[in-house]
Amino acid sequence: MRDVVKAVIYKDHKYLLQLRDNDSAISYPNTWSFFGGEADKGENFENALKRELEEELSWRPDEYFPLGKSQNKKTNCNITYYLIHCEAPEGSLVLGEGQAMDWFTLEEILTLSNTTWGVKNIISKSARHFDSS
User: Is the pLDDT reported for residue 131 higher than 70?
Assistant: First the structure.
């Protein structure tokens, strides 16, 4: 199993998602997903998350919090999710991978037909986290 890290990035009751490249060589092409990726061999998850966000958004968050783990047998991945509040100024995030990025409310995400595995479940879980705080 490969170890993957994903960032559940939120700001003002919206979540940032990446539209993956439309490339049949990657898993879940042309779908909305969390930013993140595979941890290199021997790399701890927090460092992998920082590296991936630097590559994909030219951004390093100050804080991130473990949100949960899941296993995707289709892609042979153990996925660790981190909740991150985006305090970056508007327009400062630079898309480095994928076709597009956009902010979505929970309701908008739940109506998307093209999301990667686990997105809707994890977003719902993070929304419950906010409701309980």
Answer: no
